[in-house]
Fold this sequence. Notes:
Blueprint: E1 11-23, E2 28-39, E3 45-49, E4 54-60, E5 63-64, E6 66-70, E7 74-78, E8 85-96, E9 103-111, E10 114-122, E11 143-150, E12 155-158, E13 162-168, E14 171-176, E15 189-192, E16 195-200, E17 206-211, H1 221-238, E18 246-252, E19 259-260, E20 265-269, H2 282-298, E21 305-307, H3 314-331, H4 338-353, H5 377-395, H6 397-411, E22 414-416, H7 418-429, H8 433-442, E23 447-454, E24 457-464, E25 479-480, E26 491-492, E27 496-500, E28 518-521, H9 523-534, H10 540-555, H11 564-569, H12 577-590, H13 598-619, H14 629-644, H15 648-660, H16 671-681, H17 687-696, H18 700-710, H19 716-726, H20 737-746, H21 751-760, H22 762-769, H23 777-785, H24 789-799, H25 809-838
Parallel strand pairs: 1-11, 17-18, 18-20, 21-22, 23-28
Antiparallel strand pairs: 1-2, 2-8, 3-7, 4-5, 4-8, 6-7, 9-10, 10-15, 11-14, 12-15, 13-14, 16-17, 19-20, 23-24, 24-27, 25-26
Helix pairs in contact: 1-2, 1-3, 2-3, 3-5, 4-5, 4-10, 4-12, 5-6, 6-7, 10-12, 12-14, 13-14, 13-25, 15-16, 16-18, 17-18, 19-20, 20-21, 20-23, 23-25, 24-25
Amino acid sequence: MQTVSRLIKQFIPKNYKLSLKLNRINRTFDGDVTIIGNAIGSSGTITLHSKDLDIKSVIVDGKEAKFSYGNDDTLIISHSDINAGKHILFISYHAIITDSMHGLYPCYYNHDGVKKELLATQFESHHAREVFPCIDEPEAKSTFDVTLITEPNLTILGNMPIKSQSTENDSLVTKFETTPIMSSYLLAWVVGELHKKTAQTKSGVEVNVWATPAQSSENLDFALDIATRSIDFFDKYFDTPYPLPKCDHVALPDFSSGAMENWGLITYREIALLANPVNTSISSKHYIAKVITHEISHQWFGNLVTMKWWNDLWLNESFASLIEYAAVDALEPSWDIWLDFDNCESIIALRRDSLAGVQSVQTDVNHPDEISTLFDGAIVYAKGARLIQMLKRYIGEKAFQDGLKYYFKEFAYKNTEAIDLWNAFSKSSGKDIAKLMHTWISQSGFPVLHVSQNDELIKISQEQLTSDRTKTSDKLWPIPLNCNANNAPDIFETREATFTKLDDSVLQFNIGNDVHFITHYDHELLKQLILKISNNKLSVTDRLQLLNEQAILANAGIVSSADLIPLLSAYKNETSEAVWSVIGLTINSLKKFVEHNDMADQKLRQLAGDLAKKQFKRLGWKKQPDEIETDTKLRSLIIGLMLFSNNKDITTHAIKLFNSIPLEKIDSEIRGLLISAAVRDTKNEHIDQLMEAYKKTESSELQQDICDGITSTKDPNTAIKLLELVKDNSIIRNQDVARWIVYLIRNKYSRIITWQWIRNNWDWIYETFKGDKSYDEYPKYIANALVDKIQLDEYINFFEPMKSDPILTRAIEMGVNEINDKIKLLERDSQLVINELLNL
């Protein structure tokens, strides 16, 4: 197998002096870069990364050099004077600006009826090479001196404050202060018309939130408050001051990811940064706060201290995905944000990690194109965060913080590997952290703990959870059991064990849901836990955890999916929004069993309505004075279940609200539900109106609500019409294409149409997203929606020729496994679920 060539091993850059002249009108740029660095060895060549750059000339130590293009985006510079030691390279080149949303690209927006644009950069993971020749590897840390030559009268932002600005030959010349030593993927700039709001942290760091003039200034206030207080929090939590003089946050109209932690110049999708003070939903505000704290935590984790190579990407992302919750909880304790961790990160991590072929948290990179596939949100982000949470509980909060403080002081401006972090925590806790954590990050999947009780004797055993019960794995994990029985082992690392339980408390494992395993209790133990749920004697976290784990056990064939139906009845008095989120997820998982049985389908809808009606009666349609935020969030879940139940009064009232209130004035908490109710009730009556609103609004949240509602259509002609619009980026931005496709293919009424459209238009998907981190997501999205043998055969026939593409290999293999698992599950449990429902 081809391996990635590590260019840092033959040339170590120390400083880049980069000058770019941007020609926005002609969609080109011209660059000069001076690179000072040290060659290793005397091969007569230096190899840099360079992709799609038209190199005009190369000078080495003042002498013209030869150059050629190699494999894997490389520029090979040859000169007889190149030997071990310091060299100065000067390279001139020309390149084209494309709409790829990586490298240097334009962002489009409309302001007062005029189409305008920004120029922005996105260099993670390996796209700096598309803008200047460099060693485009995280270990190749260097300082950067950047000069941008642009049109006049524009805002120019970079990682550092502006050193000087002048007008020369009708162009604006902007020079930035020298950056700290940092990786190439963190370099960034934004050019265009922008406005801002500004604040200062307690330590004097300038914090700015920027947006295009199409966005109201009041939309910047929420982000500015969170961003400013977040730096104050991390300064104290890490005991290491924020390293730069300023921190800019920029909302970009076009952005492939959610956000990017460029040092001192963090870029975001508009929906991930901007909040209207009147009509942004609570969930959206919580999301914005988590994204901001995630990216700011990267200014330490990832920027100040950086992983040596991409196989340790989790050193950046797992920590940020956990610490974002710690920060938000400290800033806004009334939000109970850790419940979001339980019903989001924990769930997506367990469900993704239960699929055969899934990557481990720490994953080797064997091909350059595999780098972008590492960014699996459910594994490197969510599972990794759970593992760090497990570690934090194991060593305690003080030792955890002390370990981080040591880590940042020891490795500031350096690169690290996993062992460096484990050693820091071992030093602070006095425990062998590498022994505990190595297996968890290097081994894919997770264990299921089987538990049975016979009088006072408790028997436990572990095995890897797998949907194929005929296959066994020899994997073992050191599991912190977090059990309420005094005699239970603290760490369980063998195949089987027994212990005695002398008291009469109900046995529980993984209390607090901090460890990445699930528990399969025997019938009697489960019965006792369900009784505690009915009597409201379990914590919110334990209640949602039990239901989610039973659903995962059902998917794996360890228990029957039919058992979920009586279990749901134990939650009839539930009041927690976090738990209701898992109830809704469980009901949604049962839909596939009744798709072709109308009577059972109606019974499932009736069950949903019976469960939700008590909370609907309590909450109603409108927010009440002094209502707690969790109830405001819960209302949308409950109304969604009531609409699913086909309650005519609820549906009629939802459509009445939709028709009587202007779209932008509808309560954002329930707007998507009302749109869906109206669209499903008619064929094409509202489609043009909704798409016109989608096109005109500058509110990303309203656009998402329209997308979510309109794609629930039952009408095939509407689905076809919407799919035709997907390729029109004057209506649907490329960054939003996946959302439209995902929602349409998940809809049983448009699934077949959408699957056929994807196959017919794959060339367009490839050309549009081939270099983007989202490209390998498409086989995942499709596999998640397909459900039968015919569709499996179609999936294999379509994607099999693409398996040789390293970007898609794992996604396709996992997609086949996922569809196969669903087919087996349906064959195994469909009739059992139908019978259980018909007997209600």
